[in-house]
């Protein structure tokens, strides 16, 4: 990092400006509008604000009193936690296992990727068929094994499982790919050297793979946190408007609902800000705890 | 292995494509024909149109063939962006108007939903159009066009009236030993029948309280009011209309607590619950005239189904129905002030609202046509029942929910499942809904 | 994603466990997960060839004989222009992918290798923008592009551009974060060696960084392509007319027509998914070749 190559700063403009220009126009400017909107009173998707709310922070006090927002936050935090444990966890396990076998690695890598290839919309339809109450795949199976009562997979007992499982399952392949790519970036020489030093099996994982994967894992962590806050398609298609009984709302689905079905654009903007603030705070904390390392 | 998978997938796909190729020539040929026609006509224009005849609307095919006929006749082309009518569809249309991205012709609601369009001068009134085109909508009765509640003027030309009625699976009723109800069906008898059906292990009412409680809301409220009260909105849950609404909502709660709705009514989609009707697993459902197409497509035998009056109680006779002309074709100010498009749009609306075209749209006697609708030649038993029902109606009231603004309506219907399950009370839900002003 | 078949002999750690019970256990675990990812697709493919009622009564059987039908595909092809939609999808997604990979590569390199004031702020901005829900940015973007006269026009090319621009921006932050993670992990020695040989930074980027980081670029490219291809929301918002419809937008159209016709729905899912799977499976091989070559020499 202290290399003399990068002392001269002029090429930096060429590297950074195009990307940031795009993001400024299509992300930062609209989001700045969004912050402004959260203090206004807006009655339609495309209308300009009628004026400021009175008091101007009205939407923010509403946030704290809104029981559904509370549900959405709790569910999202839970999703975040499960994402880190299961998505990243299973992906890491699979990646490390695959690093230990010779035959069939290609095959596994290919098929683990299948769920990501498919749009969340299509997957949502697929899982709706799987968890369908009357004649869904799971209930058909249960009937075959002699169950008499069908299970309503979207009721108040099962909804968390029904909502979270597809999300977890879909993105394992995503983190798997990122971690495998990271593992492949580790030079074989290092493993050879370790072999000579007598490190093998768990020791090799513990002292070589994991430390060298450090940055990749942090990337995964941040992607998992931000991903969980934004999750929308699958839950929206499967659970609709917070079914059952407004229990399954997530920040993403609730924000969409407020903006596009309830037409409460300013409150929707406020929820969007909450999403971003929470995401930034959590990823900053994660960065502090597990500092990224340069080599 | 990878190759094998790829091969299998490719074969599956090419098999599918083969089917596609075999079945496509017909539409391709008709496209060529319409293109040939368009090149001959003078100055063909392209107009953009948005309607609610997209998705699984029962009239989608009728609509498409009507506008294709217009294209062939005039040489103009129609850019169609129709969708399915729901709250999101409405929001998006309003957003288009607000950002200046509106279509040239719009098929939309004529009630409160269009107030912003009227107030903002975004659509052209029929009087204005008639100054230049005197015979515009001349085949319709002006008093039935559906005047805007914003200023009492006519803006839209309706196609066909809608009605809401009780769809019945006759096979299920027969299996349960319940008689198929008619015009004299009462609410008490209905409750008894539901109990009988339930005792046979069949769901009496196919309805998703989570997604579409709208129709049961209409009739339950109607049952506690009259034709006159049903056009009014409450000011609070305690005034006269407010009490009517409260009683109606509590009727839904009763139906729910007695277990007449599907077991998963708070988690099912509308599509799932309607599937119960097609599968002979449910007996009754209330829905609108647009649902006929669904039964024609999904019923094993259309003769197993019929439609009749929703059972009445109190001040409402069973033969008083909900219906009317709630939607119509608007020409936007933007298209009107574009000399190139003006005539094309007027011609389009005329072509879509001729007596012949209107008569193909759904079975109903509710119409604004001066001459009434012509009977279709090949009606099935369900369509005949629908015609009979609308002809025998003793009174017709518009849906009371159309008087609410969109956000208030969405909030109210989101709360119906909470009322049914006791998480909130009807009074609280009504007051919360009425408190929403924008 | 990038495999190492060609370099297997050079990796002694793979050989050691051969044939041991541990390895069998590994295969069992890996295979179990593979079943969960393969079976749902087989299930959909099978059911797309069945009559519409069968999916809910007998979804596990293989469609042969009486239960086999092509009706679902016939309906799908009758109602919509599938080939045109494939073309539209490819134009949009390939453009998005190429631009994103290039711009994100630049930005990630700048962020990973240069020390400058404001770097932390830029870093936070990138992370923050990954969390912007697209629903909150879409309306200002819509208005802005409406001002540029590229939305709601009759031109297919402009409609495509109106999807491409926001999608590029939407995928950039993810791409930068991932590439930055990988680039930081690269040893700087190679760049220093190249510098001593007289390369300037641009040459270093294209001739040293890009070849070494090929696997990461490939990863980013694949994800960008997929997200662009599958991003229904942006496509719904900007593609109004049927001649500009992409395949994902079309799937939505078909399913809304289908209602509860699950057979048709399954056919629609297959039509959307299969081309991507085929492209992925074939592409993967080529990408891998390039990647391993780069990795060893690097």
UniProtKB/TrEMBL annotation, chain A:
Membrane is among the record's keywords: yes
Topological type in the membrane: Multi-pass membrane protein
Family (UniProt): Belongs to the binding-protein-dependent transport system permease family.
InterPro entries (UniProt xref): ABC_transporter_permease, MetI-like, MetI-like_sf
Superkingdom, taxonomy of origin: Bacteria
Family matches, as Gene3D superfamilies: MetI-like (1.10.3720.10)
Keyword Cell membrane: yes
Location of the protein in the cell: Cell membrane
Record-annotated membrane-spanning stretches: 12-31, 38-58, 78-98, 110-133, 168-186, 207-229, 267-286
Protein name as it appears in the record: Sugar ABC transporter permease
Keywords, comma-separated and alphabetical: Cell membrane, Membrane, Transmembrane, Transmembrane helix, Transport
Main location: membrane
Organism of provenance: Caproiciproducens faecalis
Domain ABC transmembrane type-1, first and last residues per copy: 73-286
Alphabetized SUPFAM superfamilies for the sequence: MetI-like
UniProt xrefs under Pfam families: BPD_transp_1
Automatic annotation (TrEMBL), chain B:
PANTHER family to which the protein is assigned, alphabetical: ARABINOSE-BINDING PROTEIN-RELATED, DIACETYLCHITOBIOSE BINDING PROTEIN DASA
Organism: Caproiciproducens faecalis
A Pfam family reported for this protein in Swiss-Prot or TrEMBL: SBP_bac_1
Record-given protein name: Carbohydrate ABC transporter substrate-binding protein
Gene3D superfamilies: Periplasmic binding protein-like II
InterPro entries for the chain: Bact_solute-bd_prot1 (IPR050490), SBP (IPR006059)
Signal peptide: 1-28
Keyword Signal assigned: yes
Automatic annotation (TrEMBL), chain C:
Membrane topology: Multi-pass membrane protein
Transmembrane segments annotated in the record for this chain: 24-46, 90-109, 121-143, 163-183, 204-229, 262-283
Pfam families assigned: BPD_transp_1
Keyword Ligase: no
Entry keyword set: Cell membrane, Membrane, Transmembrane, Transmembrane helix, Transport
InterPro entries in the cross-refs: MetI-like, MetI-like_sf
Superkingdom assignment: Bacteria
Places the protein is found: Cell membrane
Domain ABC transmembrane type-1: 86-283
PANTHER family found in the cross-reference section: ABC TRANSPORTER PERMEASE PROTEIN MG189-RELATED-RELATED, SN-GLYCEROL-3-PHOSPHATE TRANSPORT SYSTEM PERMEASE PROTEIN UGPE
Protein name: Carbohydrate ABC transporter permease
Originating species: Caproiciproducens faecalis
């Amino acid at each position: 990092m202290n290399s003399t190559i990068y002392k001269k700063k002029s090429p930096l403009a060429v590297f950074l400006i195009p990307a940031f220009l795009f993001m400024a126009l299509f992300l930062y400017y609209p989001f700045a509008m969004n912050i402004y909107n959260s203090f206004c009173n807006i009655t339609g998707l495309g209308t300009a604000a009628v004026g400021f709310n009175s008091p101007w922070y009205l939407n923010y006090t509403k946030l704290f009193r809104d029981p559904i927002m509370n549900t959405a936050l709790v569910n999202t935090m839970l999703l975040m936690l499960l994402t880190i444990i299961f998505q990243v966890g299973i992906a890491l396990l699979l990646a490390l296992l695959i690093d230990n076998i010779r035959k069939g690695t290609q095959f596994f890598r290919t098929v683990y990727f299948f769920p990501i290839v498919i749009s969340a919309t299509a997957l949502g339809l697929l899982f709706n068929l799987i968890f369908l109450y009357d004649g869904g795949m799971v209930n058909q199976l249960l009937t075959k094994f002699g169950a008499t009562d069908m299970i309503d997979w979207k009721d108040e007992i099962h909804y968390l499982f029904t909502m979270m499982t597809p999300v977890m399952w879909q993105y394992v392949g995503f983190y798997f790919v990122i971690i495998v790519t990271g593992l492949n970036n580790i030079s074989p020489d290092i493993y050879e050297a370790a072999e000579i030093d007598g490190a093998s099996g768990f020791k090799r994982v513990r002292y070589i793979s994991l430390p060298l994967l450090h940055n990749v894992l942090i990337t995964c962590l941040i992607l998992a946190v931000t991903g969980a806050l934004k999750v929308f398609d699958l839950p929206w298609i499967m659970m609709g408007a917070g079914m059952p009984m407004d229990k399954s709302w997530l920040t993403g689905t609730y924000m969409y609902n407020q903006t596009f079905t309830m037409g409460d654009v300013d409150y929707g903007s406020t929820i969007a800000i909450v999403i971003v603030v929470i995401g930034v705070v959590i990823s900053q904390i994660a960065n502090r705890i597990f500092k990224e390392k340069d080599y | 292995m990878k190759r094998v998978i790829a091969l299998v997938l490719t074969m599956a796909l090419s098999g599918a494509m083969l089917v596609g190729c075999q079945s496509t020539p017909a539409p391709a040929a008709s496209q060529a024909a319409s293109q040939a026609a368009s090149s001959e006509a003078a100055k063909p224009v392209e107009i953009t149109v948005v309607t609610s005849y997209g998705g699984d609307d029962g009239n989608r095919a009728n609509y498409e063939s009507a506008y294709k006929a217009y294209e062939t006749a005039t040489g103009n082309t129609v850019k169609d962006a129709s969708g399915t009518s729901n709250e999101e569809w409405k929001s998006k249309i309003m957003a288009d108007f607000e950002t200046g991205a509106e279509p040239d012709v719009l098929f939309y609601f004529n009630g409160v939903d269009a107030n912003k369009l009227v107030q903002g001068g975004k659509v052209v009134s029929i009087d204005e159009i008639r100054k230049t085109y005197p015979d515009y909508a001349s085949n319709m009765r002006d008093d039935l066009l559906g005047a805007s509640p914003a200023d009492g003027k006519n803006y839209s030309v309706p196609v066909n009236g809608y009605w809401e009625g009780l769809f019945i699976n006759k096979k299920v009723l027969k299996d349960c030993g319940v008689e198929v109800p008619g015009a004299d069906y009462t609410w008490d008898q209905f409750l008894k029948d539901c109990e009988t059906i339930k005792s046979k292990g069949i769901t009496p009412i196919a309805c998703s309280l989570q997604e579409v409680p709208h129709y049961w809301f209409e009739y339950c409220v109607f049952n506690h009011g009259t034709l006159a009260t049903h056009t009014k909105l409450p000011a609070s849950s305690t005034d006269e209309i407010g009490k009517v609404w409260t009683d109606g909502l509590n009727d839904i709660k009763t139906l729910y607590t007695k277990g007449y709705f599907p077991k998963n009514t708070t988690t099912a989609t509308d599509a799932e619950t309607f599937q119960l009707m097609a599968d002979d697993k449910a007996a009754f459902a209330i829905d609108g005239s647009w649902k006929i197409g669904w039964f024609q497509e999904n019923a094993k035998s259309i003769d197993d189904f019929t439609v009749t009056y929703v059972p009445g109680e109190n001040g409402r006779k069973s033969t008083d129905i909900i219906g009317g002309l709630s939607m119509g074709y608007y020409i936007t100010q933007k298209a009107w002030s574009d000399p190139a498009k003006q005539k094309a749009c007027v011609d389009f609306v005329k072509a879509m609202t001729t007596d012949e075209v209107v008569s193909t749209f759904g079975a109903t006697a509710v119409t604004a046509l001066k001459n009434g609708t012509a009977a279709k030649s090949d009606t099935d038993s369900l369509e005949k029942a629908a015609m009979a029902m609308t002809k025998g109606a003793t009174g017709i009231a518009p849906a009371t929910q159309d008087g609410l603004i969109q956000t208030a309506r969405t909030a109210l219907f989101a709360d119906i499942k909470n009322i049914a399950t006791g998480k909130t009370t009807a009074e609280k839900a009504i007051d919360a809904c009425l408190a929403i002003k924008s | 994603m990038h495999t190492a078949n060609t370099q297997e002999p050079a990796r002694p750690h793979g050989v050691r466990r051969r044939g041991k019970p541990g390895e069998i256990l590994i295969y069992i675990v890996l295979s179990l997960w593979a079943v969960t990812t393969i079976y749902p697709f087989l299930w959909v493919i099978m059911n797309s060839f069945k009559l519409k009622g069968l999916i809910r009564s007998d979804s596990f059987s293989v469609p042969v004989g009486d239960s086999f039908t092509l009706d679902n595909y016939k309906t799908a092809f009758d109602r919509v222009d599938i080939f045109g939609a494939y073309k539209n999808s490819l134009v949009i997604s390939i453009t998005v992918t190429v631009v994103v990979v290039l711009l994100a590569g630049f930005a990630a390199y700048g962020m990973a290798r240069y020390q400058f004031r404001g770097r932390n702020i830029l870093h936070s901005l990138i992370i923050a923008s990954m969390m912007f829900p697209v629903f909150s940015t879409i309306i200002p973007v819509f208005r802005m592009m409406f001002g540029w006269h590229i939305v709601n026009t009759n031109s297919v090319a402009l409609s495509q551009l109106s999807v491409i621009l926001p999608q590029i921006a939407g995928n950039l932050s993810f791409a930068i974060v991932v590439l930055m993670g990988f680039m930081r992990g690269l040893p700087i020695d190679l760049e220093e060696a190249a510098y001593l040989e007289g390369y300037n930074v641009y040459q270093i980027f294209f001739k040293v960084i890009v070849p070494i980081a090929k696997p990461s670029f490939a990863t980013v490219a694949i994800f960008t392509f997929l997200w662009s291809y599958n991003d229904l929301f942006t496509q719904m918002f900007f593609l109004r007319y049927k001649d500009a419809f992409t395949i994902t937008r079309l799937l939505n159209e078909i399913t809304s027509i289908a209602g509860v016709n699950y057979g048709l729905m399954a056919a629609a899912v297959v039509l959307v998914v299969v081309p991507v799977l085929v492209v992925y499976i074939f592409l993967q091989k080529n990408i891998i070749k390039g990647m391993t070559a780069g990795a060893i020499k690097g």
